[in-house]
Amino acid sequence: MKRIPNMITCLRMAAALGFLFVKPLSGAFFCLYGAVGLSDILDGWLARRLKTADRRGAMLDSIADLVVSAALIVVLAHVLPWEKWAVCWICGIAAVRLTSAAVGFVRFRQMVFLHTWSNKATGLLLFALPLLYLWLGFCVAFALACGAASLSALEELALMIRMKNPDRNTRGILWRM
Fold first, then answer.
1. Does residue 176 register a pLDDT over 70?
2. In the chain, at which end, N or C, are there fewer CB atoms within 10 A of the end residue's CB?
3. How far is residue 82's CA from residue 27's CA, in Å, rounded to a whole number?
């Protein structure tokens, strides 16, 4: 029972690779996408419910999120009407995230991925991005997602700089105000 949440996380990574084999934005894509999203919610909920939430599981969850994001970028890169501003904005967010990871590694001698409420809200927006794209169009959907991602990335960097000890489950600066 204790391994079930981590097994679900590993299945999420495997399912994410399935994006490479289905037609982007098709019915099969959205079914797989829904399963990946539900597994992301389920693994954390189950880990807390079974009282098996630990640092290893949190790290595995962050790695799974990275695998899902990478698979989606590879698949959607060929079908979305990318604009230069969106690519630049995404690269800027990635630079802040990498800087945050480097600061955390230098300060705490370990990889620290924070599960702030802002990061969770951003994750939800990113999960909804394909649907937002279909409903609102490229510019609005990406501006919403990139705006949230920018705020959460800057918050995470500020936390990495200010924290005395790594607290992976901190609510975050924005939520304390």
1. no
2. C
3. 22
